[in-house]
Specification:
Elements: E1 2-5, H1 15-19, E2 24-26, E3 33-35, H2 45-54, E4 60-63
Antiparallel strand pairs: 1-4, 2-3
């Protein structure tokens, strides 16, 4: 799995952090998503997929390997 984010689309909703806190965080100054792990371990895949689905701005792209 490979994750990429489009910071320009991010609306700072925070759903990604709630769904997958080991993979995503938010910048303190504006709430924009921060990708902590672009290639998370298998045990984080389901949470990362959920975060991408929950993102209101569709700023998270998950590519399956």
């Amino acid at each position: 799995m490979k994750i990429t984010i489009d910071e320009g689309k991010c609306c700072a909703g925070g759903q990604c952090v709630l769904a997958a806190p080991e993979v995503f965080d938010q910048r303190d100054e504006d709430g924009i998503v921060v990708l902590l792990d672009a290639e998370p371990p298998a045990e984080q895949h389901a949470a990362a997929r959920e975060a991408a689905q929950l993102c209101p701005a569709a700023a998270i792209l998950v590519q399956e390997a």
